[in-house]
Amino acid sequence: MGGVSFPYVTPAFGVMDGYDLVYTLVLLCAGFAVVWLAAKVFHVRRAGVPHLGAILVAFLLSPFHPLAIVVAIVPFALGFLTGRSTKIAMDPTDPFSPRIKLSCEDYSRVAEQRHQFARSPAAQLFYENPRIHWTGKLSFLFQGFGLYRHARGLALATSWLYISIWGWANSGNGDLYVLLFLLSLPFGNAMGSLWKYAKGHPGSRKPSIVGRPFRPTLWSFVHSSLYRMTPAMTGAAIVYFFYEKNGAIAVVTAVLSALFCIYLLLQTIVVHTQRIYLLDDAIVISGIGRPYGIPWSEVEKAVVRERHNLLSGTDKLLVIVSRQGAQMAYPVSILSRDAQKHVLREVRRRVPTSSVFDDPTV
Fold first, then answer.
1. CA separation for the pair 214, 342 (Å, rounded)
2. How high is the pLDDT of residue 13?
3. Order of strands across the sheet with 275-278?
4. Could you write out the DSSP letters of every residue in 285-307?
């Protein structure tokens, strides 16, 4: 690939471009961040999903040639089937013991039990026991549960090298198809183990809240997102008008504006995933993280901070203060007008509520 490179030499395949390693690493990191954020927004709690999504994103954005599929499909499939297998020996100390197939969740529980045993004093006594044959000790030791616990990290590490070689091979370096064939088996095994890990770790269930949720409106999300994109628009305008005179300064300013814009957009997404519940015994806020709330009996007061915004109208922030000094805040202005009136009316009915008017802003 083009760009700045730092080549290195392998005995069999000549000069390879190190730029592809950096490109693949950037794809994996960016894909992981995007999929992780999407999993948070849509409440996907299954472990390993961001890792699997990052690898798929890196593959989709890498060079492709149909011949690579023909070369890699068989060893990858064999490795994947081996990696996702959940068969374990009925007697872990007997290499020839019959094997049983578990569900992915049961396999993860057995793996955790074996890990806890390996860290206990009983494991040391087991390996030092002279009455247990050394083949039984080796059989217990090499069951693959240790690698399974690190399936996410191993999949990302192996995919970094594998996808880089995939890109080199599909960019015209046909000599690398032999290496691609050889690496497809261990890479498939790592991906199969990651698939098994994700299915075996569905994550803790989010507590259900019985009550009417007040959700942000779509218009508020669209309006806020457009508002948060103004730094990027400013950076683009600076590059357009000042690039010829101050090219480097204009580009740096545009990059900083884009990063600041991304930060603001992430804030907008997090805020608009939050819902507020007015229950009989408490006020609760639910969002990306675990729900949190304060019982009405422990609420000391409520404050509505209002600020006039020349672009978005009046912003309202509801702050609940408990008798122990804990606070929770919710921007009620992201709700519909009817929902705002209902929430504020209910809060004023239950606890002493005051209003504070802050200085206007753009």
1. 10
2. 39
3. 213-214, 275-278, 282-286, 292-295
4. EESSS--EEEEGGGEEEEEEEEE
Q: What is the pLDDT of residue 107?
A: 92
Residue-by-residue DSSP string for 211-274? S-EEPPPHHHHHHHHHHHTHHHHHHHHHHHHHTTTSHHHHHHHHHHHHHHHHHHHHHHHHHTT-
Separation of alpha carbons 230 and 279, rounded Å: 38
Amino acid identity for residue 75 in this structure: P
Rounded CA gap, 241 and 263, in Å? 25
| Strand (E) or helix (H) holding 107 | helix 104-118
Cα→Cα distances 225→57, 138, 228, 314, Å: 24, 58, 5, 17
What's the whole-number average pLDDT of the chain? 83
Residue with tokens 């009417």: 212
Q: In a 3-state reduction of DSSP, which class is residue 45?
A: coil
Paired tokens of 273: 């995933």
Give ∠ CA 109-82-191 in degrees, rounded to 5. 80
pLDDT at 311: 62
Helices and strands (H and E) in the chain: how many: 13, 12
* Distance separating the N- and C-terminal Cα atoms of the chain: 45
Q: What's the pLDDT score for residue 246?
A: 67
- The Cα-based distances of 42 to 17, 46, 181, 357 in angstroms read 38, 11, 37, 35
Interacting residues of 164 by C-beta distance below 8 A, sequence separation 6+: 20, 21, 23, 24
| Residue ranges of domains in the chain, CATH in brackets | 1-205 (no CATH), 213-357 (2.30.29.30)
Residue 210 is predicted with a pLDDT of 65
Spans in the chain with pLDDT lower than 50: 1-16
